[in-house]
């Protein structure tokens, strides 16, 4: 990461930027896939990326990796991001979290001060989120060991500077658990609300549950049921069964007036949000 970027960031995120700069010193840099074919030297990274993207969506993963690897080696951030996702998921290549980590880290190092409004910003932000997740769990048989504090700093940077909803959700969870730093329910609720307003349904559900329970933030059952009802609209079974269970429990405990208000507000929010997409 460019160390000069921290001085241009708001004070609230400067610490995250400095911490994220440790990425460059975390592990020795690894080469990308040296076994892939090299594209012709006169091909531009942009052309190689487009070729790779077309090959990927046509189902030719081998050709996609060749072209994307050429573009990635030339510093093309979207090619690096796509390869990172492919290696993380074992999509057309052998699953390799260390290679995925290196691609994401390369993006973070080179584009930490990407303008949040730029077309590449969502991919850069996602690279930070992926790195934070790797630091949270560690990578088996590698130099990347679980480091909750570093994960929290990286999520904080992506959440604050890029306003990334996934980073805000992950950061909120760490504040709730006290993972990587102090436990702070109010800060958790603040980050969840920011992510929820962007349509992050898991953040909506967790915020709703906090508001219904009233254990770490003041209890607001109608607002909590509203967010849970909105989240239920996007929940995917079976992994999101907790959202359905939480919404049904909140609905059963609510008064008839609270139910009507929550349902009306949820329907209005869903209609407004859907029309904006």
UniProtKB/TrEMBL annotation:
The keyword Signal applies. It holds the Pfam family Sel1. SUPFAM superfamilies: HCP-like. Keywords: Signal. Residues 1-31 form the signal peptide. PANTHER family: ERAD-ASSOCIATED E3 UBIQUITIN-PROTEIN LIGASE COMPONENT HRD3, SEL-1-LIKE PROTEIN. This is Exopolysaccharide biosynthesis protein. It comes from Rhodobium orientis.
